[in-house]
Design goal:
By secondary structure, the protein is an alpha+beta fold. It is built from 2 helices and 4 strands, in the order E-H-E-H-E-E. The protein has a 4-stranded mixed sheet with strand order 1-2-4-3, covered by helices on one side. Helix content is about 30%, strand content about 35%. The mean pLDDT is about 90. It is globular, with a radius of gyration of 14 Å.
């Protein structure tokens, strides 16, 4: 039997996004695209080498309460944030 082709639509899945591997000029557009693709209940685990405070302001302006922000790690050189689609 074939695996369910809709397994990627299950809620509460975590999708990794390592911003360190994305060229700076494309980074915010790639992040917005990834967040737009999330279904309610899904989360994107964002990894970066610095705290993206300007990005978080942009996310708040663009998504408001539709995307929750949860820091998992906040150390110099290693930032991990879950963006959760509500």
């Amino acid at each position: 039997m074939c695996p369910d082709p809709h397994l990627h639509l299950l809620q509460d899945l975590v999708y990794p996004f390592d911003a360190r591997g994305v060229a700076k000029r494309f980074r915010h557009a790639a992040i917005f695209g990834a967040l737009d693709a999330l279904n309610p209940g899904e989360r994107m685990r964002f990894v970066n080498d610095h705290d993206p405070l300007p990005l978080l302001d942009q996310l708040h302006q663009r998504y408001g309460e539709a995307v929750a922000i949860q820091y998992l790690q906040r150390e110099v050189g290693e930032i991990v944030i879950d963006f959760i689609r509500n």
